[in-house]
Write the structure tokens for this entry.
Amino acid sequence: MLVHTAPDCYIGSRHDYTGTHSKTISNRDCQGWNKNEPHTVNVKPINPNDHSTNYCRASSFDGLLWCYTTDTDKDYPWDHCPIIPCFACGVLESPPSELPNTTWAVSFTHVVVVTFQCMSVTLGKSVEHCPVSSCGSDDQWSTKYNISCTSEDCYINSTEYDGKVHCTVSGITCQHWNKDELQKANYRPTDPKDLASNYCRDPSSTGRPWCYTTDPDVSWESCPVPHC
């Protein structure tokens, strides 16, 4: 099963996008480009005709479409928009190889990803897996994806999840919880065996398993673990 959840796409360069989408990947409304509230606008779209809109646009400084947000939260003055190249990795014609006993969906985080989900689960222990293939800058799907379909591979209470997903919803590999640079992190698992792993957990009770990542540009991210 293929589900394409990006609301819009562009052909050619991101600068060619002329659509009217005005919400970010975190579902925040875009601020008008000619307004300075709630955030000061320091960068504007290249085309002056776009300055009177609040549509997602590309600038000469960032590789993805984005906008300033109307959220007064200082952590979200701007955000990327869920608009992808129409033919990224041949997303509709040449998706990654399917895994048995799965459905899959195409979605957009800050990259284009295909996420696999089990059609049914069996009793047993979870094995290390990452059910996500991401579209790389070389326009090729990542190949280090697999899936485990046991009763441990979903959660009822996120703080009790004990499975072995070790990547994020964007396909980024999780950082080991006992890594030196995480010694002063606000949240880490209390179970010693979890500390020695890089499995997704929810020590902060956010409601969904997550992990710190190995990407220096992404501190932490939620994990592709389904609710039971």
